[in-house]
Design brief:
single chain; 337 residues; mainly alpha
């Protein structure tokens, strides 16, 4: 009973975060303004993005099969794809539920231990996280002036107000941050024996161990070149899923390939936030990036974020539901050769 209550509280907490970010993204924007912009969009470009999204998930299923095959199990691509899409569908209801869902259904159909499958999912997530950090690093260092101005408006000005342009004030803030970091390290070392007994520390330690094991499993992969190729195609398709919808609005149609890389890198942080389906967090990040970095009118930026998120969500609902039905009729393996 206590576990259920904690889960409900956590779910409501993340929902509240999502709703708050959604309201923040649409602040000062009337609903009819947003609706008018949404009506002017050319949704054929979003249909193209949906097709690219499905293709990216096919390659993700192929890549997942490589990790599963590394453990000596054989899986059908179709079954892996169905389980993967069911996982995305589950994530719309509860953050991180998808990983458990897809491992549960695939394990049942292909007779693979759940723990083994979950380890491959961790490895997959770890590698994607490394790719995402690489993309963000490229974006930040290649557009340091533009990104610096964006962070100044988004974080520094709200924190420092009229002192945001004051060099001395910024140095004082940095000095305080350095002191806090070193102070935290000292406190952590003193309290480490006690922290090891807490559930939060154990979960964090487990996550870090899983992160490292994930990297090691990829390094030992026999078909590493094929794994890297699938990863490249997956992220290229993700990028094209951003670039194609640019054409849906006249105000964003001029944005370039590299602008798409920027939006993909920073915008992906909105999906990382553990809110159901990225609602709110995705809208906020994409709206801020387009309006602050590229001076796109806020109503157009918000409409772009809303339309892109909505069409992808509809795709997850339809393809995920169909995958669930098809997976019911997939014959369960008697054994795994």
């Amino acid at each position: 009973m206590k576990g259920i209550l904690v889960s409900v509280i956590k779910y409501l907490f993340f929902i509240a975060i999502g709703v708050s970010l959604l309201l923040l993204a649409f602040r000062g924007l009337a609903f009819n303004e947003l609706w008018e912009e949404l009506k002017t969009a050319n949704y054929w470009w979003f249909l193209g993005a949906i097709i690219l999204a499905i293709m990216s998930h096919v390659f993700r299923a192929l890549r997942w099969n490589l990790l599963i095959g590394q453990m000596g199990y054989k899986t059908r691509v179709s079954t892996t794809f169905y389980a993967l899409m069911m996982g995305y569908l589950a994530n719309l209801a509860l953050p991180r539920l998808g990983e458990v869902t897809r491992c549960g259904f695939l394990g049942k159909k292909e007779k693979i231990p759940f723990n083994a499958l979950f380890g491959t999912v961790i490895a997959e997530r770890v590698f994607d996280l490394v790719v995402l950090f690489f993309i963000i690093a490229v974006v930040v260092f290649s557009q340091i002036q533009k990104i610096g101005g964006f962070l100044n408006e988004l974080l520094i000005e709200p924190l420092l107000g009229v002192y945001s342009g004051n060099f001395v004030a910024i140095l004082i803030v940095l000095a305080i941050l350095i002191v806090l970091i070193f102070g935290s390290i000292i406190v952590f070392r003193k309290l480490k024996p006690w922290l090891k007994t807490t559930l939060l520390y154990q979960k964090l330690e487990s996550f870090i161990d899983g992160f490292m094991e994930g990297l090691k499993s990829i390094r030992k992969l026999k078909q590493r070149s094929l794994f890297l190729f699938h990863t490249f195609v997956i992220w290229l398709l993700y990028l094209l899923m951003i670039i194609l919808p640019f054409k849906a609005f006249p105000e964003t149609s001029h944005l370039t390939f590299f602008d798409g890389v920027t939006v993909l890198g920073i915008g992906s942080l909105g999906i990382v936030v553990p809110v159901p389906g990225g609602i709110g967090s995705y809208h906020f990040v994409i709206t801020e990036v387009l309006s602050q970095l590229y001076e796109i009118p806020v109503k157009v930026a918000a409409a772009f974020a809303t339309a892109n998120h909505a069409t992808q969500t509809i795709m997850f609902i339809i393809v995920g539901s169909v995958s669930y039905i098809l997976l019911i009729f997939v014959k369960t393996k008697a054994s795994n050769e």
